[in-house]
Amino acid sequence: MSAGVSAESARMITLSLRTSAKPPATATWCSSRPIRYVKLADTVKSFKEVVEGKHDELPEQAFYLVGDIGEAMDKAKKLREVQ
Question: Of 21, 25, 66, 74, which one's alpha carbon is 20 to 30 angstroms from that of 12?
Answer without folding.
Answer: 25
